[in-house]
Each structure stands twice: as C-alpha cells, then as structure tokens.
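Notes continue from the previous slide.

Worked example: a multi-chain complex. Inputs as given:
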Amino acid sequence: MTTSPPPSQTASMQPVTISLTDVKKYFGPTRALDGVSLEVRAGEIHAIVGGNGCGKSTLAKVVSGILPADTGGVAIFGETPSTPAESRELGIASVFQEVLVADECSVVDNLFMGADDLFSKTISFEDKVERAEKIMEELAGECVDPHQLVGSLPLSLKQWITIGRAMLAEPKIMILDESSAALDLDSTQRLFGKMREMRDRGASLLIVTHRIAELIEISDKATVLRDGRDVGVLEKSQITESNLLALMTGDDPAKLSNAGLPVKPASARTAMSAQGLAVWPDVEPFDFELLKGEVLGVAGLDGQGQSEFVQVLAGVEAPLAGQIHVYEPDGSKSIIDGLSSAQESRVAYVSGDRKREGIFPSLSIFENMMMPLYRLRSLAGKLGIIDIPSLQAAFDRETENLLIKFGEQGDRITSLSGGNQQKVLIGRGFALRPRIMILNDPARGIDGKAKAELHKHLRTFASNGNAVIYMSSELEEFPSFASRVLVFRNGRVFDAFDGDTLDNHQVLESMFGQTDGSGLLFGFSLTRSSMEGVSGTSAPIVQPEHTLQEEQAAAEHLSPEEPDIPSTPKPIRIVEFGQDGRIVSGEPSA
Amino acid sequence: MTDLAFEAADAEQKRPGDTSGIGLLIPISLLFALLMLAALRSPFLISASGFGSAMIVVAPLILATYALMATVIAGRGTVDLAIGPLIGFINVSLIQLTSLGMSQSPFVVFAFCLLAGVAYQVIMSLIIIFVRVQPIIVSLSGYLALTGINIVILPRPGGMAPQFMASWGFGTSIFSPILLIVVLATAGWLLFKRTAFYTHLRLMGSDERAAYTSGIPITKVRIGAHVISGIFAGLAAICFTALISSGDPTQGTNYTLSAVTALVLGGASLAGGRASVMGSLLGAVNIYLISYSLSTFNFGTLQSYVTQLSYGAILVASLLLTLALPHIQRRIHNFSPPLFFVALSVLGLGVALHAVFDYGDLPEAATAADAMLFAPLAFGEAASATGGLLTYWLAVAFIAITIPVLLRMLVSGAGRSNLHVAVYVILAAMILLLTFALSNAGSGVLSFMEVN
C-alpha cells in the first residue's frame, strides 16, 4: 500500500531493538509467560498473535516495563526498563488494551501525559494545545477541542487520545495492545497509515491483536504465542489466516475455517417482532422480525445505531418509538418494555463491554456467573436463601459446556483472562435458560478458537428452537454462522443479507452505504433449490408495499431440510415475487 | 471581530457535556444568598471590623480546606480526616514549646508550624504508598492518634501565643497579617496550578494507572501532594493560634468536618482529580456564613445542632443542584455565568447598602428607600450636606467606574462558559472598598459597632 521498500529485505539489516530470551512470568500458579523469545528490528511492524490467555498482553507489559520478568533476558536497546518512566526514557511508548485516560483532565493534558519532567514543562502550554489539535485532527479525522474534559468524549476518541499520546512521544518503539478495538474500519485504516509512517521512519512497532485480517494487512512479521510460549515466527509472505490459526491452535487449520453452515430456522414461527421501532431521533421507524431457530447477525460501522438496537431489543434501553413483542411457545405475545419484562420473556443480554456492563471485579467467578439465578432459585420463599447446591450444578454445567478455564470457582473473576471472563458472562446468560439470547459484540478481545466455540454453542442453542441476535464489529464472524445479517446505517436497518450466501465484501459495501438495500425486500434471499422445495406447499403472502415485513413472508417458504449450498460464497441475488408468489426475476447483484 | 465570528467562537466553546465552568455557580449563588441574609440579619458584618473578625475566624477553615484539597486531588479518596487534630497538634505543641522557651521570632514559629505539618503528612504519605493501606484508614488512625496526643501535650486550654501574634486576632480591620497569609496561600495555589507538577497531580488523581503507565513518577507526585497539604495545614495552625491566642487541645478537631463539608460544597470530587481553589475558598466562606447567619437567630441550647443540621442540608441541596445543573443548562441556552454572577453581585451590593445605610440621616430617604437607588440626583440636591450621602456618592462613583470595566469583560468573555478570575478580583475589591467607604463615613455603622 505504501511506497516503502519491502521491509522483509531491509529489516534484516536493521539493528535489533527488542530482544527477549526465554522470558518467564508467573502470577501465582498461572503461567502467563513460560519461556518466550522474541526479536524485533527497527523499521518493522511486528505482530504478537495468540489465543486468549496465551500471554500476549503480559508480553506487551513486560516490554514496556510495567511488569518485571521473573526470569529470562529483556534487552531493549541493550537495557532492561523496570518502570514505565524508564521505558519512556528509552523511547518506548505503549498503548494498552484498557483505554487509560484521566477523565477529569483536558484532552491536551491527557495527550501530553508523562511528557513533562516532574517539576518543569518540556513544551510550553500553547505549543501543546497546537500540537494536540493537529494530532487529534490527523488521527480522529475530526476537530477536538483540546481544552475539553476527556470524560465527556466518546470511547473511540478516548482510544485516539491514548494512541496520540504514544505518537506524540515520538517513540523508537511503539507497543499497541489491541488498540484498534474501539475504532471502526475507517479509523483503523488511518491508524495503519500512521503506523506505516512510523515504520518508514525506522521505529519498531509491536502490535498485539485478535483481528487476523488487520494483522495480515499491516504486519511485516508475526510471532505466534500459545500457552505462554512462542510457537513460531512468520515472515510477511507467510502471514496468512490458515498459517496463523494452525500455529495458534496447534490444530489443522482446515478444521476451523470450514466450521459448517449457518443454522436455518426450522419453521417460520416468530420469536420476536417489533413494529415502528426507532432507536435514533428523527429517523424513520422500521419493523423487525426474528424467527425461532435463527442466528441474526447485526453489523454496521461504529455508532450507526446497531448497538442501541440490540440494547433496545434486550430491554436495556427504552425505544424512542415502537413496541417489541416476544412470542411465547404457547403463541401468546408479551411486550418488552424494560429489563424485568425481558427477563420474564426469557430474553438474555450479554454485553461485550465487560468492564462496564459485565463483570463485578471484586466478586468470585461463581458469583459472577450465578448472580441472576440467586433470586430465581432462592429457598424458603421470602427469606430468599441462596440455593447453593442447585446453583453449583448449573455452574458446573455451564463451565463445562463453555470450556471455561479457571483455578478455583471462588477466585476473583479478574484472575481470568479477558476471553474467559467473557465466557463466564455468556454462561451467565445461558444459565438463565433464555429463549432469545442477545449478544452485543461479545467477541471483543476473544481469540479465534474461543470464538469458534462460542459460535458452535450459539448454533446449538438456536437449532433447539431458540433465537440469537449477535452484534459484532468483526465481519469475519458472520459467514457460516449467521443465518441472516442486518446492516445498520444512520440509525436504522439499511440492508439485509442471507447467511448462506454471505459475502463480506458486500456487507462491507453496505456498511458504507454502497448497496441498494434490496436485501430488505426479502429477508431471506433463498437459494433456488430451497425455494423450489417449498414453493408448492405453502401459500405465499407477499405484499410488496410492506417492504419491511417480508422477512416473515419469505420465511414461510423455508424448507425443513438443509438446502444444498455451494461451498463458495455466492453473490446476493435480488429476488422478486410476482402476485402468486413465484420468483419473477432473480439476477445476481453486481 | 464580527458578530459572526463571536457566534462561531461561542458555538465552539459551548460543547455539550462541558460543564467544567459552571461548577462554581452553586457555591457562588449560595455565597450571595448567605451574604444577603447575614447583612440583613446583622449589618455588623458589612463593616471594617465585621469583615476583619470574619476574616480571622474563617482563615483557618480556608487553609484547612486547601490542605484537604491538595491530597484529595491526588486520588484514592485521600480525604485527610486528621486535618483538625493536626491543626490542634501544631497549636498545642507550638504553645508548649513557646512556654518552654523556644524562640518567639516569626521565622522560627512559621518554620516550626510548616515543618510539623509537612513532617506529619510525609509520614502519612509513606504509609499510604509503601504499606499500601487505604488513605482513609491512615487518616482515621491519624485522627484518633493526634486527638489523644494533643491532650497529652496540653491537658487543658491555656498558654499564650507567641508575642508577635497577639495583635493578629483583634480583627478590627480586614487588612491583617491573616489576610496576607490567606491571599498568599491562594495566590500560591494559583501559581502552583500552572506548574507541570500540578498537571501530574491531577492526571494521577483522575486515573492513577494511566499516569503510571505514561511514565509519571506517581510516588514522588503523591508525596509532593502531601507536602503541599502539610504546608497548608501549618498555615492553618498559625491562623488558628492567632485566632484563639492560646493553646486548645480539642477545638481544632472541629475543623475536620467543616473542612470536608467546605471542600465538597466547593465542588471538589472526593474520587480525585478535580478540585478548585476558588471553590474551596467559596466553600469555606459559605460554611462560615451559615454559622454566622444562624448565630443571629436565637436557638438557645439547640444552636450547635441547628448549625450542623444546616451544614448537612445545604451540602445535600447544593450537590443535588449541581447534578441538576447540566439539565437546567440544556433548557436555558443563552445562559452566561459571568452575567449571572454580576447580576447577583449587584443585587448583593444593593442589599448590603440597604442593610448598613443609615436612613435616619436622610430626612426624605426614610420613606423612600427604593427610590434612593433609582433617583440619586434628587437625593443629592435634597441632602447634600450629610455624611451618609457622601458615602452614597462614593459608592455610586465606584460603581460607575467598575460597571463599564465589568461590561467590557463581559463582552470579551461572552463566549466563555467558565468564570474569569478577574471577575472575582474586581468584585472582591468592590465589596471591600464599599465597606471602607461605609465604615469611615457611615456614623450609623460606627454607633452600631459601639453597641456591640
């Protein structure tokens, strides 16, 4: 993408900046790093890849001097920093997984955090303001008042501040630990541009990321970690999804990449519906329908209303307009207007924002998972004594199902890695025995293997006649998982795609508003074979003027058998129904 | 600058969610409300000696609040409960050392008080940092320990303050060394705000992990915060000693609750990262005015309970109002805090004038107190010979000068959503000068003073 010389040729001549030899770091019985060696050269973007709890973040912290290594050699320009202040002296700047900003302070103070000496300023305040304005505009692509308090800014801008802080230090080594997590695609590209600029200036960049597509694009070299050990180093040309996955999991890559077909609703019974729903002010309301047995993917660029949408469906937020109904197994309807009615209708919600909407950091793993069941399964009526034995059974079942790795169930949840914490939260959702599971970007900070397991679970869950709504910021999650994908744009549903023929490029185009929204006309643009299988058996009830309710109508045609799907993704077909419900035309879209 | 440019600047600075500038509105409004109440209930306050004695009484509280402010910004919920007993400790140890023959020179006394305060705070900070005990527990232990030690050092109130302090506690004029200490302390803090160290302190208080990972030496910054707190505690102890002119092992303890209340009333966040010197100053003055106003009512034996009840009620009410403020601001778009402040001060001055002006001197004024403010020319002709009117004209002339200055500032600062420090300075000067004009010329005030 850039005109820089291929780094693989020049980098080998560049001096080594970071050199780790057999570094070990234990936290009590947990082996975070169990002998890691790493070599990073100047002018190189080096990725650290691995599954959850494999020690990536620990490695980043060891390099940046926040955690001292127990044994082994850490040499950064020949020295071993033991505090962040020392590593800053050496020219290391780090951006950590958590968005570390001081909410009560201004943008400019946050950007230049650590730049001054203890008592004297190194840069005059006016200079700082000017540079702060410039870098925020470059990075975030919008003007940010440097005097504004950071606490009032959205998460993505806070993330930019942490990145901007590291860049303003003009480091020789920059460490980015999952730092694109809160950024959308557009922003990520800007960040990559900046990173390439820094690399071309001769800086070493160490990135830690779960987003395989991103790291394939940006990194010159990748070190793969598994269970605290480095299991392989890949050069630029070798960095492919299958190679990475093979090293990360130690499994045959083919097993993971072809995980199967998306679940299909077995019948056209509706699980949930919404009429005239609006989640943003001044946006035309839309209708929505979810079938039993469906895994509905929800996508969109950051902050296009998709997150509000799933929160409204889960009863976390109240809709601005419209009503949400859940259909009970006996056919009766109940309205969701808040969390308590959502709970009664057995709708469970799992948030990806673990820190703020998920875990209770000072409570144990057991308490974190079983908390919502305390009241539901209490003994002795109003006295509400916690029924430990029955909860224990549920806990054992869920931890086994989700393969949660933990030491003692009484340990604090913060002793687990991020991915395992997320599994505990998902287990919390499953423990409620929901009929509809709503997940808001649950895969944030989870590795590929855990993700695949999660998808498997949700698929099983859906195929038992339940429904799943799955919002994700990573499009790679949807193929062969979601039975339908809704794309949000400007606060409402913009387009819909059928899971069988899902093409991520099209979804992406749609996220940027480049599709015509034709998928909405027919919630399932069914393949011909499945269409033919049912066309004679059920009467079509398509009414073209109700463009947004066709999902249900189209679903009437679903065949009970698995449709035969070609193994390669096909372009979406625009299907039109005539008066009698037959397909009138069906051309592949461009 | 064109109007359009003004509007653009306005729009840029008034972003949604930016409520940093209006945080002081509540303490300021409360200050004026209490001032008006106090002036009406007891006009003695609006006089040279009234201000003078108020200054003497409020100074230790102001400085104690500053001492708390330094550590509360440092985060971790470092509310130093021991501030009251610490003031008492420095007071009684100073009195005992003086009686044992320690040099009474101001230099030695100041050095001792400041060093004692700093030494205590540094010990506390080292315990907090290296033993990793929660600050609130450390300060509670300090509170209990110092309360006991004070009684061991000086079992009963008594002793004599150093000689040079003897005249400080008279409070006949506001221009006392005590005022100088408070002004220097406030100016010192304002200067401190411009240093890199203060930025580090605020960053650390707001998010300690962020500060640490960015390479800020948080241990040094935390010790520094305690050193500053110790300096203010020492100054508070000096003012306290001057106020009571003796030693008292128990009275200092009362400052803990008042200072914490004043701090919160001034808009500080006990979670760290946010506190302002103006807020703390206003908070402390408000606490004093509450107790002063209530002392003009006769609650008999219930007096102290009513005072504490009011502290609590006003604290809760002001916190609620602060929470409601962003919502109110969203409704009222063209709200300018400086203008609001000026309107309040004009109203306050009017009430103060009304309270202290001796209408008896003016034959016609007695029947038309309001008309006096609106038709000064007519009065000038009617009673030009009286001293009261001279005062009146002085005030009018002063207002005539200051109002254009203020208007100029209002125009230049119209887009700002926060208050400019100069506004405080000008208005403080205005109130002071008015007081002088009144106390020198207004015979009614003088006679009132004699009665007291």
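Summary box: Chain A has three domains: 8-91+171-250, 254-346+434-567, 363-433. Chain A touches chain B through 32 residues (CB under 8 Å).
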